[in-house]
Amino acid sequence: MVTSIQLSIITPSRVFTFVPIEDGPITIGRSLNCEFSVPLEDISREHCLVESDNGIVYITDLKSKNGIWVNRERILPSVRTQITNDCSIVLSNLYTLKINEVDLPVRPGFVLNKVPRDSETVSFQIELSDNKISRYFKKIKNHSEAITMIVGFALALSFIIYQMLQK
Length: 167
Known about the structure:
Mean pLDDT: 75
Number of strands: 14
Shape: elongated
Radius of gyration: 18 Å
Distance between the termini: 35 Å
Helix content: 10-25%
Strand order of the largest sheet: 2-1-11-10-7-8
C-alpha cells in the first residue's frame, strides 16, 4: 500500500474528487492544464497549489481572484500555508476543500485513480515491463468513454499476451 492524499472540492450540488497517481505538487483550477481541473466559474484558471513536503501538506494561493480561506482567515497570495485534515479550507468563499490521506493498493501495470462518473475527469497510468514507460490518459469526459478505453486497452493487452504465448 502507498499513502497518498485525496482532494475533494464540495459544492452545494456536486463533489469533485482527485487522487494523484504520483507524488508532486497539485495545481487546482479551471484550466485543463491543472492536475485537478474543476469547471467552476468562481475558481481561477490556476487557483491554488497543494503540495506535500516530508508528510506536511501546504496550500499556496496562486494569486487567485476570489482567494482561499484557511480556518476562516484569508491567506496571502504566493504564501505557502501549512494545512491539516482538520483545517477548514474554503476556495472562492464558496467551495470547501477537503484533504484526506488514503491508502492505495500498489499493483504492477494498471492503476486507475478513481471510479469514473459521468462528466468527471479521470486519469490513469500504464507502466510496461522494466522499461518504466508511463503514459497518462487525461480528460476522459464521461463514464462510457472511460469504460470503452479501459476495455479496448484490456483487449489489446490480452491480444499481445496471447501472441507472445504462441511463440
